[in-house]
């Protein structure tokens, strides 16, 4: 399994930031809740939450890592994670890798903007922090980074955006090539990110 591409895929999930109501009807569903003005961000995750996160991530791997379009279509309503699940999963996968993309990953989500901070070991070497959004260009995922800093020093965001987008195009190529694929959206509310994929 290509750990670098797995990390890029996780970054794609993190990049979606279109505030909307999340309502996923499956085993890990949560009831719809009204948006809070200043959501409380908890980074603590207990063993039961870890088990659920691991199960959801396994479904993601079976669908995307194996480029199984039928599994993606079958489970298209089941791809959602909480912010703390993503923090847990990203750091867990990084710790297992021989040559990790990054370490000390921290994601915060205020419902309108996602902020990422981590010690990168590939793409760029050093402590990187940035804010991110996603653009839908021809139904393809395009990351748009802003406020990009390396060791606290501002750097041009477009340099990193280009590399991330190149990797994303390669990772999602099996999805983009399928004639049934009709685009995507991501719902973001109360520290839950849910990827919606559209198919004919």
Give your account of this protein's structure.
It is built from 6 helices and 9 strands; from the N terminus they run H-E-H-H-E-H-E-E-E-E-E-H-H-E-E. Strand 6 and strand 7 (153-154) form a beta hairpin. It has one domain. The protein has a 5-stranded antiparallel beta sheet with strand order 3-4-5-6-7. The chain is globular. The chain has helices at 3-15, 47-65, 69-74, 83-96, 157-171, 173-177, and strands spanning 18-19, 80-82, 102-109, 114-120, 126-137, 140-150, 153-154, 181-189, 192-199. The protein has 200 residues and is α+β, with helices and mostly antiparallel strands.
Which key phrases capture this entry?
36% helix, 200 residues, globular, alpha+beta, 9 strands
SSE arrangement:
Layout: H1 3-15, E1 18-19, H2 47-65, H3 69-74, E2 80-82, H4 83-96, E3 102-109, E4 114-120, E5 126-137, E6 140-150, E7 153-154, H5 157-171, H6 173-177, E8 181-189, E9 192-199
Parallel strand pairs: 1-8
Antiparallel strand pairs: 2-9, 3-4, 4-5, 5-6, 6-7, 8-9
Helix pairs in contact: 1-4, 1-5, 2-4
Strand ordering within the main sheet: 3-4-5-6-7
N to C succession of SSEs: HEHHEHEEEEEHHEE
Number of structurally distinct domains: 1
Q: Separation of termini?
A: 30 Å
Instruction: Determine the number of helices (DSSP H or I, runs of at least 4 residues).
Output: 6
Query: What spatial form do the alpha-carbon principal axes imply?
Result: globular
Taking the sheet with the most strands, its summary is: 5 strands, antiparallel
Structural class designation: alpha+beta
The radius of gyration over CA amounts to 16 Å
Strand tally is 9
Low-confidence blocks of residues: 12-41
Range of helix content: 25-40%
Overall pLDDT confidence? 79
- Note the beta-strand portion: 25-35%
